[in-house]
Amino acid sequence: MTFSTMLSTMADGMLKTGAIFFLTLIGSLPLGMIVALLRKSRFTLVRGIISVYISIMRGTPLMLQLLVWYFGPYYLFGMNIGNWRFPALIVGFVLNYAAYFAEIYRGGIESIPVGQYEAAEVLGYTKTQTFMRIILPQVMKIIMPSITNEVITLVKDTSLAFTLAYQEVFSLAKQISASQTSFMPFVIAGVFYFVANYVVEIAMNRIEKSMDYYK
Amino acid sequence: MKKILALLLVLTMSIAVFTACGGSSSDTETSDGGDQYGEGYVFKHGFDLDYPPYSYRDDNGEVGGFDVEMAKAVCEYYGWEYESVPFNWDAKDAELNAGSCDCIWSGFTLNGREDDYLWSKPYSDNTQKIMVKKDSGIKSLADLEGKKVGVQTATSAYDLLQNDNEEEGGQAALANKFESLEVYETYTIAFNDLKAGAIDAIAIDVTSGNFLMSNEDGYTFLDEDLGSEVYAIGFRKDDTELCEKINAALDALAEDGTVEKIAANYPEIKDYITLGK
To answer: What ipTM was predicted for this assembly?
Structure first.
């Protein structure tokens, strides 16, 4: 196999890795906010459920969660899991990352002094207005570095999709390495993850700079 | 409270949608009864892509290998549609039982698993061998005492070294004499360790071993075999009709020379293919 065939084969996997990455972000960033807000809910039951959910998501390996999401429907309900591989992956990734993002959001929200809520109330802001216009913009700024951390981890975690034999970069690297008895595919995969993360870093820095308000 | 209700609704709805999808696809497969495996049937070939030369990424980066070409030939014979379902070898049973594939057809050892699957006729002979460096001084199985030996997880060589039933050819007694048995995710990594001197020998199928050695000098098999076995296709136990169809197709393809033609593409294994012999 020539180097260029190797690259073009793996490029196909890079697209699939990209699909996992973007779908996970699109799903988990908003879901994380919902979870963070529910965690502060008035109802004890809701708070309880959410905290159990976060504990499980953070307390068990993502690899294991992916296997459960994929094979669970069969083992629990005897369902045929014919085309469930990719959806299971995305469900697993989104729910896992939403838990981490929720905790980051919560940390950010709780770091805002109570005085600001009181001041907003005095000025006649409603609760929603206070959150959307005063709290959230500051929270976003505070949590950006933590979010960047998670996003970079996500780029590398996409490789866990190999547990479900999804044909992303890492699975392909393993297969090509097996058939060509060569270490090169792993080098290509390594360079790919590094470059992807470098791009993420630059993008996130830009976003952080654009949040240069309140100075 | 409204938020929670909405969230619950979304959850139940998505579950309902997924269940519906899963249900309908299995319904269509069984609804037309006797003619289930007629023309247009989607044959889901389950295999491990880490198992050259039976199923692997070929030189063009495509999914290929002897088993893949054979499965495609069977599909062509019946006018079926071929669907490749690559899986991880550790998860093969769950994949098969859960219906993501119709069979395990991937250099799959029959021996020792006779009662676990419905088996097609064996199509390939295979022997387990010990691979060493030519200059290692290891000449026989007895020389392996106190050596480090590598093996790929969930392979027949691994099973042999774990099996203490000597009537079944188990080699656990031999494995106990090793300094250690190193279990690898893939043989490629084991082979790298052998090259680097981290282990002294690899227990491996002769066909996979031949494949690894095809690009390298300085490695050889011991003359003594570790064990011997045959490859066949494993089906779910109640899929007798499908199994019979595949067997019939294998016979027909052996007779019209297709098997020989496909085997010619894989010089490392062509002498071991038993179909039509």
So the answer is: 0.81
